[in-house]
Amino acid sequence: MNSSRTRLLTVAVVVTAFALGAGLAVFLQFGTDSNSDATSVSSGTTTSGAAEESNSTTEDPLTTQPKSTTTTTVRPGVIALADIVAAMSPEEKARQVLVIGLSGAGPSLASSPRTSTGSMCVGGVFVARNWAPQESLAAATETIAAISSEAESDSCVGRPLIITDAEAGTRVLKVPVDPLPSPADLLTAHVADSTNAVEELQLLASEFATQLRAAGVHANFGVIADVDVDSTFYMARQERSFGGDPASVSEITGALVEGHCRAGVAATLKHFPNQGATPEDPHGELSRSADDVAAWQERGMIPYVGTTAPMVMTGHILFEPDAERPASLSRAITTGLLRDELAYQGVIVTDDLSGMRGITTVATDRAKRTVDAIAAGADLALFVDDGPFDREIDAIVSRAEADPEFARQLDASVARVLRLKASLGLLDGIEPSWFPLCTDQEAPYLHPAPASIPAVVVANGTGKRFLAGDTASRLPAGVTGHATTALSDDVMRTVVYFEEGHEATAADVATALGIPQSRLSSTSADLESLVPPTPVVAAVVVLLGSDFDPADGVVSTDE
User: Fold this and answer.
1) Any residues with CB less than 8 A from the CB of 402 and at least 6 apart, and which?
2) Other Cβ atoms within 10 Å of 526 Cβ, number
3) C-alpha–C-alpha distance, residues 173 and 339, integer Å
4) What's 93-434's CATH class?
5) What are phi and psi of 483, to 5 degrees?
6) Inter-axis angle of helices 404-423 and 76-87, to 10 degrees?
7) Which residues have CB under 8 Å from 255's CB, separation 6+?
8) Backbone torsions φ then ψ of 522, nearest 5 degrees
């Protein structure tokens, strides 16, 4: 190893392919709608970290050979959303990851979030249990309108999501709209004629969700994706699920999601990983899955594969990857299975954290379980009661101040929540069309300020390790570098390679670039040997070392 490489501690290599005309902004976009309007930023401008789309040929400063580069366009919504997160206080961020319930009656009902948290600017308001207007659609609509009006009076940067629980049938229907057919009836129709039943259900779900939207509801916790394992288990006993065939459950829930999407309501799949596999009712006792991981992959996982649902709810379910913590508090399940293995990039919300014994018996302190849920990977912590929430907010802020990784994760959650709000028209200054509600979206850009868009070092196959770039900036935890891009005719999934002992830093890099943690790979190989030659791919090499000065611009492995 030469002296230059000895001086540098290589901690991660991100190998990615860029399609022709694509570049670093692939990590920054939330969606893939090519018809969206975009604002171009010149490639030399570091305040945005984004480059205007253009092709140019320049001389490689190391090889003196012509080298093609591509810069790209970053959507204005991405930049605007990044600015919003950057400007938020820690307390504002903490409120954005809370969904709180309402209770009582009278004029004070609409302003109860302010009483509970000190502001109307919370992540969401759950109109369900114990709220007086649930028997009257007119009263419900009036109350929801009053909540929205109160939020506008507080000048909320992301007005609260109005969320309800409206499942198929009438067993769980908290806003009195015309109900969908029962789960049993929907399953019967699907078994009889699955193709026509799916199309019919999409239409029914759209009409149903249109009623919810007219009442002021933005999101519905009402799509049961649980696959029954036994007819005596909790969800089957409740008659809320769609049976034990994972393909049928997936098709029915997919139709429900699509219908909600057409109406502009965010449907939520629940209860991940699969409440249908638990004999126990988590409202009253610990709830443990009867399935192991292999069995879950055969049934409980199926409805979540490739879903376009904007939200997924984690259940209070003890499951094999984590014997001690329910899924709602388990990083192995929330992040490891849902976020990483299934690559889900929508909003993750917990089941109720306030009173269900499936959670309170294993996590007795309410503020701590709030923080633990966010640390596990949830974006929204749900409470069906109305607080107060001073301790929960303080706990989130304190953890973020003490733990940089948690602070980055909090920013990530806030970004996802605001992205969802933007798609529903709840974020002033951002067009909902910039963030489609129900598409398979890229991970949101997690670091708040456009000036902090990560810059990276790009290596080619010429024996030269580093190339100068246009958007010098800083990666997390002191990782620094420069960026450039290369043309490519090939596309492959991104992988972050790291040397033994550097997994934490590699995880930081992946988080900064919006790369799922499942794409981290430990290797004992010479990292440079993993860099394919150009022009097949552009390779990103991230370095950490006190001797590396990004101002040096160009460093050669031949030194």
Assistant:
1) none
2) 12
3) 29
4) alpha beta
5) -135, 145
6) 130
7) 198, 199, 201, 202, 205
8) -75, 140
From CA 303, how far away is CA 193, in angstroms rounded?
19
Distances (CA, A) of 119 to 23, 81, 152, 206, 499: 40, 21, 11, 33, 46
Q: Where are the alpha helices (DSSP H) in 424-523?
A: 503-513
Q: Supply angle C-alpha 108, 93, 257, rounded to 5.
A: 80
Please give the Cα distance from 89 to 232 (Å, whole number). Answer: 48
The amino acid present at 199, given as its one-letter code, is: E
- From CA 396, how far away is CA 370, in angstroms rounded? 8
CB distance 475 to 456 below 8 Å: yes
402: DSSP letter: H
Q: What is the pLDDT of residue 140?
A: 85
CA distances from 170 to 173, 233, 239 (A): 6, 20, 11
Among candidate residues 41, 39, 77, the one with its CA nearest the CA of residue 428: 77
* Tens-place pLDDT, residues 474-508: 233 333 332 222 222 222 334 566 666 667 666 66
Q: Where in the chain is the domain with CATH 3.20.20.300?
A: 93-434
Token pair for 2: 């030469």
Q: Which residues contact 551 (CB under 8 A, 6 or more apart)?
A: none
Give the residue carrying structure tokens 């009076």.
153
Residue that the structure tokens 């709000």 belong to: 421
Q: Model-level pTM greater than 0.85? A: no
Single-letter amino acid code for the residue at 257: V
Q: Which helix (H) or strand (E) is 124 found in, with range?
A: strand 124-126
Mean pLDDT throughout 417-442? 86
CB 170 within 8 A of CB 133: no
Largest CA distance in the chain: 77
The 3 state secondary structure assigned to 423-445 is HCCCCCCCCHHHCCCCCCCCCCC
Q: What is the mean pLDDT of residues 57-72?
A: 32
**Of 55-59, 187-191, 302-306, minimum mean pLDDT range:** 55-59
